[in-house]
Amino acid sequence: MMQAPSSHDINARIDSLCKPPGSLGELESIARKLCAIQGTLSPSVSPRRVVVFAADHGVTSEGVTAWPSEVTGLVTRVMQSGRTASGVFAEHLHCEYEVVDVGLRARLPASRIPGSAVQFIDAAGRRGTGNLRFAAAMTGEEFDHAWAVGSARADAANDDGCRLVIGGEMGIGNTTAASCLASLLAGVDVQDAVGRGAGLNDIGLAKKVRVVEDAIARVRALEPLDAQQIGCEVGGLEIVALSGFYARAAALGLVIILDGYIATSAALLADAIHPQTKLNMIAGHRSAEPGHQAALQQLWLSPVLDLGCRLGEGTGALAALPLVDLAAAMINGMATLAELESP
Ligand SMILES: Cc1cc2ncn([C@H]3O[C@H](COP(=O)(O)O)[C@@H](O)[C@H]3O)c2cc1C
Ligand SMILES: O=C(O)c1cccnc1
Description:
Bound molecules: alpha-ribazole-5'-phosphate, nicotinic acid
Pfam families: DBI_PRT (PF02277)
Family: Belongs to the CobT family.
Distance between the termini: 39 Å
CATH superfamily of the largest domain: Nicotinate-nucleotide-dimethylbenzimidazole phosphoribosyltransferase (CobT), large domain
Order of helices and strands: HHEHHEEHEHHHHHEHEHH
Number of strands: 6
Largest sheet: 6 strands, parallel
Number of helices: 13
InterPro entries: Nict_dMeBzImd_PRibTrfase, Nict_dMeBzImd_PRibTrfase_bact, Nict_dMeBzImd_PRibTrfase_N, Nict_dMeBzImd_PRibTrfase_sf
Structural class: alpha/beta
CATH class of the largest domain: Alpha Beta
Strand content: 5-15%
EC number: 2.4.2.21
CATH architecture of the largest domain: 3-Layer(aba) Sandwich
Number of domains: 2
Radius of gyration: 20 Å
Catalytic activity: 5,6-dimethylbenzimidazole + nicotinate beta-D-ribonucleotide = alpha-ribazole 5'-phosphate + nicotinate + H(+)
Shape: globular
């Protein structure tokens, strides 16, 4: 087997291409990262797959979201048809799309929707989390189950030949869990960690801040806790599954494009448990949620895009994929200056 190129080799190759060194800016940084992750000067970004994990949240009973909990199942049903924003983006970008129920309150029909290429997996253990304001969201066994579900989906993607993966999530109320995780794992101030999620008004926002403050005070009183225990207290089943997905995908050497605030809270949890995980990540975008930038900084990541998006489902990561494709095309296809014939 050929030895993996050093960072010096990677820089030298990119600088040798037919352009002034550095002139392709961040595209060069992305190309460097692709090479470093895959240990090659010829990285590949296909086949690629989005895996969306869906689950419900007990904390929705606290009025922390503008939407009823039932919307989680309704949107996940639309995901099965491939017609959510992330499904449409994925199809457009030749990305396989998989949806995993890891804890929806109500089971969805598992039969494939006619005409849809979406793969659906019912892997739920517990159906919906506990209310994290007052009690642990899940037990240690439930955490392990959700983590293993995510990890198995990374194995499946790798076995199917994928070289790049994107994790997405669907779970009404999950920006509240993400805010708690960002605060506890990245030290983000509660006022900055809490945002409007899927469209909260001012009254809802103030309520959400109080709920997150209560949850954090409750968890602090239990300390010392390790990252897994923090995940049990304030996580979500889809967030923990995403963490398991990221940790395993990184261990397998896959490129991961990170999505928004919720995905990043899962990345914080994964990286706290398996600290090499962040090295395989490219941050697709900066979400409009105010805590996202600080959460990304904790992972030493800087986002490719800042489009004001705040949807989740993998959409922000997918939006960055065409640029990741260009970075791969650059290093795989460009001639070197040395190849030029002198006039
Ligand atoms: C129709 C619809 C589609 C979505 N797709 C993702 N989310 C996003 O919004 C939710 C988080 O926001 P909050 O914590 O404020 O409830 C998650 O389901 C997230 O994936 C959606 C939300 C809605 C309403
Ligand atoms: O940044 C995100 O992932 C996000 C923000 C708001 C609502 N849903 C997702």
